UniProtKB/TrEMBL annotation:
The protein, known as: Indole-3-glycerol phosphate synthase
Signal peptide segment: none
Species for this entry: Sphingobacterium spiritivorum ATCC 33861
Pathway the protein acts in: Amino-acid biosynthesis; L-tryptophan biosynthesis; L-tryptophan from chorismate: step 4/5
InterPro entries membership: Aldolase_TIM, Indole-3-glycerol_P_synth, Indole-3-glycerol_P_synth_dom, Indole-3-GlycerolPSynthase_CS, RibuloseP-bd_barrel
Domain of life: Bacteria
Alphabetized GO MF terms: indole-3-glycerol-phosphate synthase activity; phosphoribosylanthranilate isomerase activity
């Protein structure tokens, strides 16, 4: 089994358990479920913001513990102040040491779009995302069928959420182009073996229709890389470990942005 297979298998068990503890009807009555979401496109294209989707991530399956010290509020507030266009928060516990409470904590600190970074395998998780304060959900083509992508994205749009679809190759892209998707992210990290190459972004950028916000994800650690990706046609850049692996992620993003 690949790492992705293990995560998805665990996720299905996790969702089944969550449904017994908090039924969907209860989620729909959470105060944050009724809030209007920030619009991802507006924030990405805002002239005073950087296009960076900065991530709060404590750990990963490939790197282990990345940062077990910096608090959610401290980090995401620093990201926003430095000009991030959106914030991504990992909510998977077993593999990334995140929680849904991290999402709510981030929501309290932010006035820009918030992404629930999660391996979504069930519509219940989309309702959870809304109930805990997300504006954006992530759908990963590598672990979903085309039918699931359409079904899940349509449900997300019903709830007022933005949808970021993640692809890794042309096959995943070609089967996933639906009007219910707002942004397409090219993951430079192969989720099967966690190897990273920016070639994936450069290979796919011109194959993504212009109706979608184009996002390059993972493996970005240098402002020059963003400049090159912008020239190639990308409008947004998801950066995780590069800031989180430092002693002070807020200072790290601030210095990074100055070089842009």
């Amino acid at each position: 089994m690949t790492i992705l297979d293990k995560i998805v298998e665990r996720k299905k068990t996790e969702v089944a358990e969550a449904k017994t503890k908090v039924p969907l009807e209860k989620l729909e009555n959470y105060p944050l479920f009724r809030r209007s979401c920030y619009v991802l496109r507006d924030s990405i294209l805002h002239p005073e913001r950087t296009g960076i989707i900065a991530e709060y991530k404590r750990a990963s399956p490939s790197k282990g513990l990345i940062n077990g010290v910096s608090s959610v509020t401290e980090v995401v507030s620093g990201y926003q102040a430095a000009g991030a266009s959106a914030i991504s928060v990992l909510t998977d516990t077993d593999f990334f040491k995140g929680t849904l409470d991290d999402l709510t904590e981030a929501r309290k600190a932010l006035t820009i779009p918030l992404l629930r970074k999660e391996f979504i395998v069930d519509k219940y998780q989309i309702a959870e995302a809304k109930a805990y304060g997300a504006d954006i959900i992530l759908l990963i083509a590598a672990c979903l069928t085309a039918g699931e992508i359409l079904d899940f994205s349509a449900y997300a749009k019903q709830l007022g959420l933005n949808v970021l679809l993640e692809v890794h190759d042309q096959e995943e892209l070609n089967r996933s182009l639906f009007d219910t998707i707002d942004a397409i992210g090219v993951n430079n990290r192969n989720l099967k073996d966690f190897s990273v190459s920016l070639d994936h972004s450069y290979d796919l950028v011109n194959k993504i229709p212009s109706q979608y916000i184009k996002v390059s994800e993972s493996g970005i650690s240098d402002p020059e890389t963003i400049k090159n990706l912008k020239k190639a046609g990308f409008q947004a850049f998801l950066i995780g470990e590069n800031f989180m692996k430092t002693e002070n992620p807020s200072v790290a993003i601030s210095n990074f942005v100055k070089e842009l």
